[in-house]
Design goal:
About 65% of the residues lie in helices and about 0% in strands. By secondary structure, it is mainly α. About 0% of the residues are buried. Keywords: Membrane, Transmembrane, Transmembrane helix.
């Protein structure tokens, strides 16, 4: 059975969208896997690992969200230009 090509309104899984999903889910996985950071050593400037690991993920999450947003904007512009060329 052959599949029809997706129309402009349908959701399409592309490599860029997979990267966006990974950028947005990585912080959740990192924070929900408590066993990976539930320890006190190594300490950083006297701060136990448990705390500075979580604070590092605040910055990492911000960067990953910014990357996902920029990729999403680029993907939407590309889809819009493809749709405009066909019309």
């Amino acid at each position: 059975m052959s599949q029809a090509p997706p129309t402009s309104g349908e959701a399409v899984v592309t490599p860029v969208r997979v990267i966006i999903a990974l950028c947005l889910t990585a912080p959740f996985v990192a924070m929900l896997w408590v066993g990976s950071y539930a320890k006190t050593d190594p300490a950083f400037i006297g701060i136990p690992f448990f705390y500075w690991y979580q604070m590092a993920w605040v910055v990492i999450s911000t960067v990953l969200t910014m990357i996902a947003y920029r990729l999403w904007q680029r993907d939407q512009r590309a889809r819009k230009s493809e749709g405009g060329a066909d019309a």
